[in-house]
Design goal:
CATH topology: Rossmann fold
Shape: globular
Bound molecules: adenosine-5'-triphosphate, magnesium ion
Number of domains: 1
Number of strands: 9
CATH superfamily: P-loop containing nucleotide triphosphate hydrolases
Strand content: 15-25%
Radius of gyration: 16 Å
Distance between the termini: 28 Å
Largest sheet: 9 strands, mixed
CATH architecture: 3-Layer(aba) Sandwich
Number of helices: 7
Strand order of the largest sheet: 3-4-2-5-6-1-7-8-9
CATH class: Alpha Beta
Length: about 200
């Protein structure tokens, strides 16, 4: 089974380091089965790029796979990637720009199922967004770790203060590029990702 099947959320403003950390997680995690919902088409190198449901089905048939989902209709790709991840079990699902697909009070059923029961299927999830307050609350409530890179948006800082405390959240403003504050099990730490 995929190690601990945890939910990780990565936040921060444009160009702050979110996708770089996602790449580091993908590299260091040593996962043999990976699906990346590649909303902006930036994770295709070294992966099987799929653009249709048959291609997606074919790609996950093997025991080990490393897939970038780049459908023309991103919503369709998102829903199918979530369904396939749930059925295939024991994998890491990375979702770039997750706020493109979910709202604070809504998530499509295949994603909702994964957040609620994916742990029992060995599905680890890493979800990336620029807009913390727009995330589906069930996702944040079930997250094991939240990494936030720099944000200067007051609404984001107020929101993240609920998790990491006001003082730490204020610290998000002064972070440099690739620096993050991590909130995990009530503990707050600082770190930096690398290219
Ligand atoms: N391999 C690399 N070498 C040098 N600079 C890089 C490399 N990859 C990314 N960068 C730069 O590092 C910064 C962080 O990039 P990254 O793609 O991680 O940001 P992001 O938070 O995902 O942004 P966005 O919200 O636009 O997706 C950006 O300024 C980017 O131009
Ligand atoms: Mg990015």
């Amino acid at each position: 089974m995929t190690k601990s099947a945890e939910i990780t959320i990565i936040l921060g403003k444009r160009g702050s380091g979110k996708s770089t950390l996602a790449r580091e997680i993908l590299k260091r995690g040593g996962h043999k089965r990976v699906i990346v919902i590649d909303t902006l088409g930036e994770h295709g190198a070294g992966r099987t790029v799929v653009r249709s449901v048959p291609e997606l089905f074919e790609a996950v048939k093997r025991k080990a796979f490393n897939v970038a989902v780049q459908f023309e209709d991103a919503d369709v790709g998102f829903s199918w990637a979530c369904r396939v991840a749930y059925a295939a079990r024991d994998l890491l699902l990375v979702c770039e720009e997750v706020d493109f697909y979910i709202k604070s009070n809504y998530a499509p059923e295949p994603f909702s199922l994964l957040v609620r029961y994916g742990r029992h299927k060995g599905v680890a999830m890493t979800c990336i967004s620029r807009r913390p307050p727009d995330l589906w609350r069930n996702l944040t409530a079930n997250a094991d770790s939240i990494f936030s890179f720099q944000t200067i948006e007051p609404r984001d800082i107020r929101y993240l203060a609920e998790f990491m405390g006001a003082q730490n959240a204020e610290g998000l403003k002064g972070l440099g590029k690739l620096e993050y504050i991590k909130y995990c099990n009530g503990e707050v730490s600082r770190g930096r990702t690398h290219f």
